[in-house]
């Protein structure tokens, strides 16, 4: 079988898997596709003028798989970190909504002690954002199957990049040094992880 036909069949199977949501992570699908194609090249002993004695695919296989595996691992680690961060922040918001005296660490830091009722409601509403973050990045880390399609998931990657960028700006300009010192580094780390995934 000609290699171009094999490559087409691998790409077709990859698309079907994504559409059917059989595998949550598109990175895992591409890694499997790369491994399959290079294995086929190796088995067919396809040589190149640049490697007259041995198949170039045979020489490249371990290196390319290693690079791709590292990339997938980086994305999984970044996604796992975002799940942990979102969980911690969600617990913090629940505590604020319940009346915890941490007003100086949130919402501009203008409220000492417990937050007023309107800001407690805002804390409850913000849980929707963190639930979305946990759901999305948990799927990227392959903790569970993504409920989002192959079109929506990449859009969410960049939505969160924008979200963390704005959050970083807001925390850096906060008048409360407590809020600024606590959350600016956390949001900066979140932004870095989101960029690793989006790019």
How many domain units? 2
Element order: H for helix, E for strand: HHHHHH
Pick out the low-confidence regions.
1-10, 15-25, 44-57
Tell me about the largest β-sheet: none
Give the oligomeric state.
Answer: single chain
Terminal-residue CA separation: 35 Å
Average pLDDT across residues? 77
How much helix, percentage-wise, in residues?
over 70%
How many helices? The count is 6
Shape: globular
The fraction of residues in strands falls at under 5%
Global Rg = 23 Å
How many E-type strands? 0
Q: Structural class, from helix and strand content?
A: mainly alpha
Report on this model:
- It is a single chain.
- This protein is mostly helical.
- It has two domains: 3-69, no CATH class; 73-198, no CATH class.
- It has six helices and no strands.
- The protein has helices spanning 3-20, 26-44, 56-97, 117-140, 152-172, 177-198.
- The longest helix has 42 residues, at 56-97.
- Residues 1-10, 15-25 and 44-57 have low confidence and may be disordered.
Secondary-structure topology with pairs:
Layout: H1 3-20, H2 26-44, H3 56-97, H4 117-140, H5 152-172, H6 177-198
